[in-house]
């Protein structure tokens, strides 16, 4: 029941906030959001699951109830957590709370609607990570689109309408493709599957895969479904060349939405890749490892190069997210404990770090009303603590040791370098690792131009220190980043416990 | 077994209640044609339709039409001229729901209208016709019921006698309608010629005797399809729809696009499954008639959605979207040749029910806007959410639901339709083209539906508005439709079951 | 003696933890502390020094220490050679090498902290808590790097010192140049670290371990693999070891500012001089060389890698020394000198002269820290003027500074008996004997030898321009006085620079045949040691042949020593002739075209800047344009096409009802024709 | 003497096509309406002929219904044509084109 409570609190909170007066909406939403945060931390502490949720694992906080049945397939409310999803649920809860806090300053109209949507998105995100029935999962997966569309559209920047619709339609098309591929697969599995429960489907996939469908052989069907689903998720991740919605969405989104977008929404894509493609299709992973790794490397390098060419701080971080997600793909395709585990770790880590980066950019934007690197310099002079945290975050992004980013990247690199499944793994890894140089290039360049140098900013008011609540939430994130960097095993053991069955499922 | 046994004709009670209500309203009209006692008139209409709904639901729950010892089984009325089975009851429910919503909304919409009693009686009379269509089991009764639906509809569309749009719409509707019914009745005559009977089962039984008249029968079937296409606003008989929906009073647009369309579909579902079983018919006419529906479905959904994408008028956009949805539902017929045909048809029926809420709600919102004096274009709707957040929220719900985005009811019906189409494609890979068309159109529909959400929620108003009134009836209808659209998502099981049973009543 | 005893070693982690505590305290409460947060740092580094000395003594007492403190993470990973599992840990390895280095680092750190009291606090700088906090963080990272017992831990702290370097170079962030220099420093070293990280990952993936010492070390595993003739990642084991070794070397070249990654170090002089002394002379830059020494066993397995190290070292030594000749800024001279000196260390290590390399590292740490602090003192004297042409005649006004600086200069130039002589001589000697058999090494030796002349020259050019002659500016006539906080560190380091060479007077030992090469004994496990990490263990592995001149090792040695001393003196004398005059002038024309080449640092900066800004940036912009036009164009094009066709589709609805009827009938007839044809209805 | 049923069918088809032709070419609403009536009557011819052919009364009965409904349709149609005239001062069906595209 815990997960239901978690989701219900956020949902009811969303409704309450939606009708609350604007004046108190921010504080109210914060108070409400503390409940899921506390609950998720409690879940974290009380976690007693083991193994992989899809592969006969011992689920934590599992609950299941029939929903409907159509054509011999049952669809149910089926939630539960394992070592992969739990950290992401905690991440979601924490980032939502912090996103709410960081909205206090910039959001000054239609507050109750804004905070209502944030809480709504939180509920949906938690659902995405805990759902274990395909339809249930898909409901949450798609339901995230609406609040994000509105958040970008209503409170966004000058080109918000374009960005919002692009985000909305692009990712929805991808979902449709993915959906079609998956249901074809399920029908292809024939009588061995009687529900849309993911564990059942995963088991059937590993037990022999589909019998065939549309007159296609089982293997062909599985391959096509794999490709279709990969493409579908690739947009969400996003992977080059399906990434162009992301910078637009990030640049136009209000800061809190960017935090959630980069921090959690992108992880939906990689989480789904892990849950579906990389859990259910070991043979296809092996068959397509090289092209996928190539895509990953291209994402890393190309994304980083794009970031290098930007002068808008948000665009920089946005493109660097593309780059970071490339690492995740690389880790997944390595199909080793460290590779896949590192990829999962990177999901959490990148969530925290990109959240911190967007928060910092937001704080600077709130004070300066510009995000252009060329418009300002020497911000460290005016907002020393915020800038200090920003620098720390930037170095976290660059993979500074003892911060979570390094742990994640190291796990991925180590896992993929010696991967047996991926041909030329050492070469791919080495190429991808060049990303750590480029990331340092563009972040340091941006830092040098914006926060260092003589103070210069054309405003008609005095830029003052960042508000305490903003700095506090940034420090919370930084603390988490360092904690995970120093003690990755806090979640990594949990993750690898859930990863191992996947790797072994591939018979490797 | 039930405690007491009603006479057979009582099985038609949902339609009869509507007929009675219509007569009462007629009586009222003849006594006092200029009555402005809105509460009484609307109240009567609402009471009648709700009573019809209640009875239909009661019958469904009690097991009319269902097989098994404790149920009543299918009820034949008048020697098979009418039949009350799950299918009939299901569509009676849809029709009475829409009628009730429209009647409630009309309470405010007709505030300044002179001949109100006439209006309500026509609405209920048309609803009676639709209910009758659902239960008709002979081409005679079908034609009569069809005309009973059409004739009041023509009048209703043109009821704003001093409004050029309304009159033009009425004219076009009427002319195309007259042409279509001429074609339809000619088709009936040919079918009669080929088989010698008009009762549907008898037609099916005599198909073998058609012998050398296969060509005539084929032409007759094609003409019947024409009549159905007119009623459901499908290509190429759709031309009346954009103008009729745009010009008609908005509640009437809602009524026609939801209830009338549903009636057209139940007609198609029953006639083509009962009278022209696929194999027997193919043996005579040498063509698999589902192919016609495959082609029509693709063209209809594509034309509807593409034409909707760049509309400037909200109502016209909804009109084209309605054509697009007709295309979706046509898949239910297109997939009949496959093993999963009943599931696809069931999904199509689910879609019609959900559509009854969301599309009616959408048109009623337009009615509300017209009530407020908001202009017809998207720009005129800009920023309405600031004055009317709840109605605008409801409209957003309708739009997203129409687009099939969760967490709204439209998600289920659209994705189950998609799912089952893919399922059916196992036997007929051409259906994959249909599924692909569904994806493309769905993406496009997302664009134009969200365009309206954008206008309501994102755009700034182009002119300053005063506070907007909150007409009780319209609000009640809209909010009720919205709540239902949301509630349907978790509580979809009864709908799915009912729809599948309804489909099973005529297929397989 | 095996590494078993705990005893005093239990305190080893505290060496690093103390400065970390100082960092946290200063960061949080620095503003409210006396001396702006200097005290926690001083106390902590003093504590570290104390414990380091205890360690040193303990090692001297025949013990060593190797333990795992904390498991960072562990997991299953199939490696090419090793077992299935791998554990990444933080551990402490106290052996002769690390004990020595701990003392050096904590001592210099302490002295620099003290010096900062005079250099930074007295000048009324703002942001001092930040400065001291960063110093603390640096000291922590550096010390942890030094006692790291595995490659990954070493890499992690290697990166962290890079961060501290970045922060401290950019201490005066309000200027334009400091942040730029900081960025450059981090980027260039990051580029090296990229290769290092590949190396770490490759080694971990190959051998399933990253430990430096013991049975479970990757060195042992590599040795076994070579012996077994294993194939690793498609290469034979020997080649793979060379490749991975060279990858790690990338990080070394970056941190130790070796060619071609040396360009950041001169720019790094934008930081406070104290920082230059601590980080960019004595400690962090030494990290690279230290790392080579730390995993020398691994390099010893690959002659190719060693030769490359030696050649790069020799080349860098000469290359940087020539650039140092034409610099006007006293810190710039020292910066190039630092690069050059680390080249010597690399040369020494590359020819298998483990002791020589470490010896030079030790000496250099002291005399270069001394020179930098001395330069710092001069800068204080000169009111933050760094151009030597504006100085002159400071000799009499600041005698303490002068004499200590002179001691450092003599050591740097390699004049007997100052420390630099001994170690540089040993490096050159080791290079020579190998070089006699190996042409590549001989070339490296030759370059190292020539560099000695330049070293002598630029060192004394600096001394003469700064301290001798007539004052050439008003501030030089009336310098700012310096306090005890400046003088004490100078004196301590001055003494050390003079005497540390005595710990390993190899030529003397050879001549007199006495056992006074203490450092060699120290590193060779005469006292405490860890199995496998000793000089002779390395020496056995290194597969270089040695040659001698004139059939005698002593002759060769004397010849080598005489040659280098002679060149050093020649350099010093040239400087004396040119610059030790009352009114020295520039002698640009004497260098002719070479002058501008040297002034521009062989255009090394230019091509690297071009790589970054002339190549990468345009490439990035091109990618961006490609992204915006082609990739995004396709996305937007899809929507444009859809909307365009939408516009076209809706034109069917002409509004004229007769057209509708016609279209309707037309559509119907089309269907009829198709179906009729298919069904044969018209037959 | 009986006429073969196919001649009736041919007749009805001819009538139907004439009606259809009228629908497509006449712009006068009343003529449009009349053309539709022709089409309906074509169906009636069929129905009655086939009733005779099949020997049951269903067709004849249905023809009666059709006539009644045709009358009702005309009634509604005329009403609409009236308001059309009132609004557009014309009964040319191609005139009202305020809504298109």
Automatic annotation (TrEMBL), chain A:
<feature type="transmembrane region" description="Helical">
    <location>
        <begin position="316"/>
        <end position="335"/>
    </location>
</feature>
<feature type="domain" description="NADH:ubiquinone oxidoreductase chain 4 N-terminal">
    <location>
        <begin position="73"/>
        <end position="126"/>
    </location>
</feature>
<feature type="transmembrane region" description="Helical">
    <location>
        <begin position="138"/>
        <end position="155"/>
    </location>
</feature>
<dbReference type="InterPro" id="IPR003918">
    <property type="entry name" value="NADH_UbQ_OxRdtase"/>
</dbReference>
<dbReference type="GO" id="GO:0008137">
    <property type="term" value="F:NADH dehydrogenase (ubiquinone) activity"/>
</dbReference>
<feature type="transmembrane region" description="Helical">
    <location>
        <begin position="84"/>
        <end position="102"/>
    </location>
</feature>
<feature type="transmembrane region" description="Helical">
    <location>
        <begin position="213"/>
        <end position="235"/>
    </location>
</feature>
<protein>
    <submittedName>
        <fullName>NADH dehydrogenase subunit M</fullName>
    </submittedName>
</protein>
<dbReference type="Pfam" id="PF01059">
    <property type="entry name" value="Oxidored_q5_N"/>
</dbReference>
<dbReference type="GO" id="GO:0016020">
    <property type="term" value="C:membrane"/>
</dbReference>
<feature type="transmembrane region" description="Helical">
    <location>
        <begin position="421"/>
        <end position="447"/>
    </location>
</feature>
<feature type="transmembrane region" description="Helical">
    <location>
        <begin position="167"/>
        <end position="189"/>
    </location>
</feature>
UniProtKB/TrEMBL annotation, chain B:
<keyword id="KW-0472">Membrane</keyword>
<feature type="transmembrane region" description="Helical">
    <location>
        <begin position="252"/>
        <end position="269"/>
    </location>
</feature>
<feature type="transmembrane region" description="Helical">
    <location>
        <begin position="6"/>
        <end position="28"/>
    </location>
</feature>
<dbReference type="GO" id="GO:0008137">
    <property type="term" value="F:NADH dehydrogenase (ubiquinone) activity"/>
</dbReference>
<feature type="transmembrane region" description="Helical">
    <location>
        <begin position="215"/>
        <end position="240"/>
    </location>
</feature>
<feature type="transmembrane region" description="Helical">
    <location>
        <begin position="40"/>
        <end position="67"/>
    </location>
</feature>
<feature type="transmembrane region" description="Helical">
    <location>
        <begin position="142"/>
        <end position="161"/>
    </location>
</feature>
<feature type="transmembrane region" description="Helical">
    <location>
        <begin position="473"/>
        <end position="492"/>
    </location>
</feature>
<dbReference type="Pfam" id="PF00361">
    <property type="entry name" value="Proton_antipo_M"/>
</dbReference>
<dbReference type="GO" id="GO:0042773">
    <property type="term" value="P:ATP synthesis coupled electron transport"/>
</dbReference>
<dbReference type="GO" id="GO:0016020">
    <property type="term" value="C:membrane"/>
</dbReference>
<keyword id="KW-1133">Transmembrane helix</keyword>
TrEMBL record, chain C:
<dbReference type="Pfam" id="PF00361">
    <property type="entry name" value="Proton_antipo_M"/>
</dbReference>
<dbReference type="InterPro" id="IPR003945">
    <property type="entry name" value="NU5C-like"/>
</dbReference>
<feature type="domain" description="NADH-Ubiquinone oxidoreductase (complex I) chain 5 N-terminal">
    <location>
        <begin position="85"/>
        <end position="132"/>
    </location>
</feature>
<keyword id="KW-1133">Transmembrane helix</keyword>
<dbReference type="GO" id="GO:0042773">
    <property type="term" value="P:ATP synthesis coupled electron transport"/>
</dbReference>
<dbReference type="GO" id="GO:0003954">
    <property type="term" value="F:NADH dehydrogenase activity"/>
</dbReference>
<dbReference type="GO" id="GO:0015990">
    <property type="term" value="P:electron transport coupled proton transport"/>
</dbReference>
<keyword id="KW-0812">Transmembrane</keyword>
<feature type="transmembrane region" description="Helical">
    <location>
        <begin position="361"/>
        <end position="381"/>
    </location>
</feature>
<feature type="transmembrane region" description="Helical">
    <location>
        <begin position="12"/>
        <end position="30"/>
    </location>
</feature>
<feature type="transmembrane region" description="Helical">
    <location>
        <begin position="131"/>
        <end position="148"/>
    </location>
</feature>
<dbReference type="InterPro" id="IPR001516">
    <property type="entry name" value="Proton_antipo_N"/>
</dbReference>
Automatic annotation (TrEMBL), chain D:
<protein>
    <submittedName>
        <fullName>NADH dehydrogenase subunit K</fullName>
    </submittedName>
</protein>
<feature type="transmembrane region" description="Helical">
    <location>
        <begin position="31"/>
        <end position="55"/>
    </location>
</feature>
<keyword id="KW-1133">Transmembrane helix</keyword>
<feature type="transmembrane region" description="Helical">
    <location>
        <begin position="6"/>
        <end position="24"/>
    </location>
</feature>
<dbReference type="GO" id="GO:0016651">
    <property type="term" value="F:oxidoreductase activity, acting on NAD(P)H"/>
</dbReference>
<feature type="transmembrane region" description="Helical">
    <location>
        <begin position="61"/>
        <end position="85"/>
    </location>
</feature>
<dbReference type="GO" id="GO:0030964">
    <property type="term" value="C:NADH dehydrogenase complex"/>
</dbReference>
<keyword id="KW-0812">Transmembrane</keyword>
<keyword id="KW-0813">Transport</keyword>
<dbReference type="GO" id="GO:0042773">
    <property type="term" value="P:ATP synthesis coupled electron transport"/>
</dbReference>
<dbReference type="InterPro" id="IPR001133">
    <property type="entry name" value="NADH_UbQ_OxRdtase_chain4L/K"/>
</dbReference>
<dbReference type="Pfam" id="PF00420">
    <property type="entry name" value="Oxidored_q2"/>
</dbReference>
């Amino acid at each position: 029941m815990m997960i239901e409570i978690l989701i219900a609190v956020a949902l009811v909170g969303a409704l309450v906030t939606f009708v609350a007066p604007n004046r108190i909406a921010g504080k109210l939403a914060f108070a409400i959001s503390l409940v899921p945060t506390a609950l998720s931390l409690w879940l974290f502490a009380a976690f007693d699951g083991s193994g992989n949720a899809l592969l006969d694992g011992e689920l934590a906080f599992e609950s299941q109830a029939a929903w409907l049945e159509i054509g011999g397939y049952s669809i149910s409310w089926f939630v539960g957590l394992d070592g992969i999803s739990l950290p992401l649920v905690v991440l979601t809860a924490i980032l939502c709370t912090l996103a709410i806090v960081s909205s206090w300053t910039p959001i000054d109209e239609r507050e109750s609607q804004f905070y209502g949507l944030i809480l709504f998105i939180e509920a949906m995100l938690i659902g995405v990570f805990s759902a274990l029935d395909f339809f249930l999962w898909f409901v949450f997966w798609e339901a995230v689109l609406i609040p994000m569309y509105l958040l970008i559209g209503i409170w966004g920047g000058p080109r918000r309408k374009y960005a919002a619709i692009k985000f909305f339609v692009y990712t929805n098309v991808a979902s449709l493709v993915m959906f079609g591929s998956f249901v074809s697969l399920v029908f292809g599995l024939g009588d061995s599957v009687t529900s849309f429960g993911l564990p059942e489907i995963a088991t059937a996939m590993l037990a022999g895969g589909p019998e065939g469908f549309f007159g296609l052989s089982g293997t062909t069907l599985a391959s096509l479904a794999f490709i279709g689903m990969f493409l579908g998720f690739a947009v969400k991740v996003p992977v080059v060349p399906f990434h162009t919605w992301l910078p637009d969405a990030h640049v136009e989104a209000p800061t809190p939405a960017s935090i959630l977008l980069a921090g959690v929404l992108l992880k939906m894509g990689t989480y789904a890749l892990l849950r579906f493609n990389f859990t259910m299709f070991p043979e296809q992973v092996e068959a397509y490892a090289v092209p996928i790794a190539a895509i990953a490397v291209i994402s890393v390098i190309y994304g980083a190069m794009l970031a290098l060419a930007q002068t808008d701080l948000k665009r920089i971080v946005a493109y660097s997210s593309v780059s970071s997600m490339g690492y995740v793909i690389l880790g997944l395709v390595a199909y080793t404990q460290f590779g896949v585990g590192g990829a999962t770790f990177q999901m959490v880590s990148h969530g925290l770090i990109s959240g911190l980066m967007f928060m910092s950019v937001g704080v600077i934007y709130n004070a300066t009303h510009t995000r252009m690197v060329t418009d300002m310099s020497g911000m460290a002079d005016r907002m020393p603590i915020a800038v200090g945290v920003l620098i720390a975050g930037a170095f976290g992004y660059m993979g500074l040791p003892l911060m979570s980013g390094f742990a994640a990247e190291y796990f991925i690199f180590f896992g993929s370098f010696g991967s047996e499944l991926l041909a030329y793994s050492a070469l791919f890894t080495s190429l991808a690792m060049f990303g750590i140089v480029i990331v340092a290039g563009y972040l340091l360049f941006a830092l040098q131009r914006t926060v260092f140098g003589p103070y210069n900013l054309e405003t008609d008011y005095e830029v003052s220190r960042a508000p305490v609540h903003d700095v506090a939430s940034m420090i919370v994130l930084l603390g988490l980043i360092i904690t995970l960097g120093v003690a990755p095993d806090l979640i990594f053991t949990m993750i690898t416990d859930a990863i191992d069955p996947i790797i072994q499922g591939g018979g490797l | 077994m039930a405690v007491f046994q009603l006479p057979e004709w009582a099985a038609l009670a949902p339609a009869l209640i509507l007929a009675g209500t219509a007569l009462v309203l007629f009586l009222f009209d003849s006594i006092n044609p200029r009555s402005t006692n809105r509460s009484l008139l609307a109240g009567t209409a609402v009471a009648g339709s709700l009573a019809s709904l209640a009875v239909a639901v009661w019958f469904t729950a009690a097991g009319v039409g269902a097989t098994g010892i404790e149920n009543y089984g299918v009820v034949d009325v008048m020697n098979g001229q009418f039949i009350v089975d799950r299918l009939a009851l299901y569509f009676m429910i849809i029709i009475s729901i829409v009628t009730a919503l429209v009647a409630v909304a009309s309470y405010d919409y007709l505030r300044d209208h002179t001949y109100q009693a006439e209006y309500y009686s026509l609405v209920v009379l048309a609803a009676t016709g639709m209910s009758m269509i659902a239960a008709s089991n002979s081409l005679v009764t079908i034609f009569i019921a069809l005309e009973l639906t059409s004739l009041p509809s023509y009048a209703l569309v043109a009821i704003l006698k001093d409004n050029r749009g309304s009159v033009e719409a009425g004219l076009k509707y009427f002319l195309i309608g007259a042409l279509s019914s001429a074609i339809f009745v000619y088709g009936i005559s040919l079918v009669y010629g080929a088989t010698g009977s008009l009762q549907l089962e008898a037609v099916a039984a005599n198909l073998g005797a058609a012998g050398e008249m296969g060509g005539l029968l084929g032409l007759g079937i094609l003409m019947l399809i024409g009549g159905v296409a007119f009623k459901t606003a499908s290509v190429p008989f759709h031309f009346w729809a954009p103008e009729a929906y745009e010009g008609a009073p908005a509640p009437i647009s809602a009524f026609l696009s939801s209830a009338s369309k549903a009636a057209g579909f139940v007609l198609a579902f029953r006639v083509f499954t009962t009278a022209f079983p696929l194999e027997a018919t193919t043996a005579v006419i040498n063509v698999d008639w589902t192919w016609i529906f495959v082609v029509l479905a693709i063209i209809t959904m594509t034309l509807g959605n593409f034409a909707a994408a760049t509309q400037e008028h909200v109502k016209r956009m909804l009109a084209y979207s309605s054509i697009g949805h007709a295309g979706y539902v046509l898949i239910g017929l297109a997939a009949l040749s496959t093993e999963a045909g009943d599931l696809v048809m069931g999904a199509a029926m689910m879609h019609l029910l959900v559509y009854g809420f969301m599309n009616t709600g959408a048109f009623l919102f337009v009615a509300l806007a017209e009530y407020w004096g908001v202009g017809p274009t998207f720009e005129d709707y800009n920023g309405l959410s600031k004055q009317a957040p709840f109605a605008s929220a409801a409209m957003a719900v309708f739009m997203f639901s129409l687009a099939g985005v969760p967490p709204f009811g439209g998600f289920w019906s659209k994705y189950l339709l998609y799912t089952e189409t893919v399922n059916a494609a196992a036997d007929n890979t051409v259906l994959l083209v249909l599924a692909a068309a569904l994806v493309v159109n769905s993406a496009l529909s997302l664009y134009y539906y969200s365009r309206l959400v954008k206008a309501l929620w994102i755009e700034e108003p182009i002119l300053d508005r005063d506070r907007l009134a909150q007409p009780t009836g319209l609000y009640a209808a809209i909010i009720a439709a919205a709540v239902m659209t949301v509630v349907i998502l978790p509580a979809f099981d009864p709908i799915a079951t009912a729809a599948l049973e309804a489909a099973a009543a005529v297929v397989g | 003696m095996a590494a078993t005893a705990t005893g005093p070693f239990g305190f080893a982690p505290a060496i690093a933890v103390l400065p970390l505590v100082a960092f946290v305290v200063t960061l949080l409460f620095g503003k409210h502390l006396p001396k702006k947060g200097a005290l926690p740092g001083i106390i902590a580094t003093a504590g570290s020094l104390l414990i380091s000395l205890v360690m040193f003594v303990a090692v001297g007492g025949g013990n060593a220490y190797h333990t795992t403190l904390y498991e960072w993470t562990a997991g299953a990973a199939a490696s090419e050679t090793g077992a299935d599992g791998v554990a990444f840990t933080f551990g402490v390895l106290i052996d002769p090498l690390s004990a020595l280095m701990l003392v050096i680092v904590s001592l210099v750190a302490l002295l620099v902290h003290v010096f900062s009291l005079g250099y930074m606090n007295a000048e009324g700088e703002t942001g001092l808590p930040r400065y001291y906090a960063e110093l603390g963080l640096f000291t922590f990272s550096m010390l942890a790097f030094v006692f790291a017992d595995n490659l990954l831990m070493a890499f992690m702290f290697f990166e962290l010192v890079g961060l501290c370097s970045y922060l401290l170079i950019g201490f005066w962030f309000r200027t334009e140049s400091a942040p730029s220099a900081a960025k450059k420093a981090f980027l260039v070293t990051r580029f090296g670290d990229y290769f290092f990280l590949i190396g770490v990952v490759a080694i971990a993936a190959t051998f399933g371990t990253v430990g430096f010492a013991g049975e479970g070390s990757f060195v042992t595993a590599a040795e076994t693999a070579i012996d077994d003739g294993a194939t690793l990642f498609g290469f034979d084991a020997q080649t793979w070891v060379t490749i991975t070794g060279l990858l790690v070397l990338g990080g070394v070249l970056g941190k130790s500012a070796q060619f071609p990654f040396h360009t950041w170090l001169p720019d790094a002089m934008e930081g406070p001089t104290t920082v230059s002394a601590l980080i960019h002379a004595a400690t962090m830059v030494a990290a690279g060389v230290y790392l080579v020494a730390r995993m020398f066993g691994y390099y010893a397995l690959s002659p190719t890698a060693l030769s490359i190290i030696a050649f790069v070292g020799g080349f860098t030594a000469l290359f940087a020394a020539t650039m140092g000749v034409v610099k006007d800024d006293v810190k710039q001279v020292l910066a190039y000198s630092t690069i050059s000196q680390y080249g010597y260390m690399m040369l020494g290590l590359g020819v298998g002269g483990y002791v020589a390399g470490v010896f030079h590292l030790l000496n250099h740490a002291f005399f270069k820290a001394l020179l930098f602090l001395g330069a710092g003192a001069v800068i204080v004297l000169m009111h933050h003027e760094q151009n030597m042409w504006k100085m002159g005649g400071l000799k009499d006004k600041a005698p303490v500074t002068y004499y200590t600086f002179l001691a450092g200069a003599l050591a740097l130039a390699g004049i007997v008996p100052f420390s630099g002589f001994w170690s540089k001589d040993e490096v050159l000697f080791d290079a020579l004997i190998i070089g006699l058999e190996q042409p590549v090494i001989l070339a490296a030796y030759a370059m190292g030898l020539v560099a000695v002349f330049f070293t002598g020259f630029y060192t004394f050019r600096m001394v003469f321009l700064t301290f001798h002659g007539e004052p050439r500016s008003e501030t030089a006539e009336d310098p700012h006085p310096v306090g005890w906080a400046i003088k004490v560190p100078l004196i301590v380091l001055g003494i050390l620079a003079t005497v540390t060479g005595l710990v390993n007077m190899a030529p003397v030992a050879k001549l007199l045949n006495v056992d006074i090469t203490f450092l060699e004994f120290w590193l060779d496990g005469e006292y405490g040691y860890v199995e496998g990490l000793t000089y002779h263990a390395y020496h056995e592995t290194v597969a270089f042949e040695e040659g001698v001149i004139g059939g005698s090792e002593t002759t060769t040695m004397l010849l080598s020593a005489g040659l280098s001393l002679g060149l050093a003196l020649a350099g010093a004398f040239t400087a004396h002739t040119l610059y030790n005059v009352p009114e020295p002038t520039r002698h640009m024309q004497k260098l002719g075209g070479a002058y501008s080449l040297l002034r521009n640092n062989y255009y090394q900066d230019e091509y690297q800047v071009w790589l970054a800004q002339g190549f990468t940036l345009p490439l990035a912009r091109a990618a961006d344009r490609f992204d915006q036009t082609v990739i995004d164009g396709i996305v937007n094009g899809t929507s444009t096409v859809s909307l365009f066709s939408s516009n076209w589709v809706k034109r069917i609805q002409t509004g004229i009802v007769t057209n509708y009827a016609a279209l309707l009938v037309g559509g119907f007839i089309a269907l009829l024709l198709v179906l009729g044809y298919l069904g044969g209805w018209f037959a | 003497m009986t006429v073969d049923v196919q001649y009736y069918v041919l007749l009805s088809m001819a009538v139907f096509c004439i009606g259809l032709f009228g629908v497509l070419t006449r712009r006068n609403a009343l003529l449009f309406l009349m053309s539709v009536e022709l089409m309906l009557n074509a169906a009636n011819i069929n129905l009655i002929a086939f009733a005779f052919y099949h020997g049951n009364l269903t067709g004849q009965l249905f023809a009666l219904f059709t006539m009644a409904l045709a009358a009702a349709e005309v009634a509604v149609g005329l009403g609409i044509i009236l308001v059309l005239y009132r609004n557009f001062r014309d009964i040319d069906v191609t005139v009202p084109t305020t809504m298109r595209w």
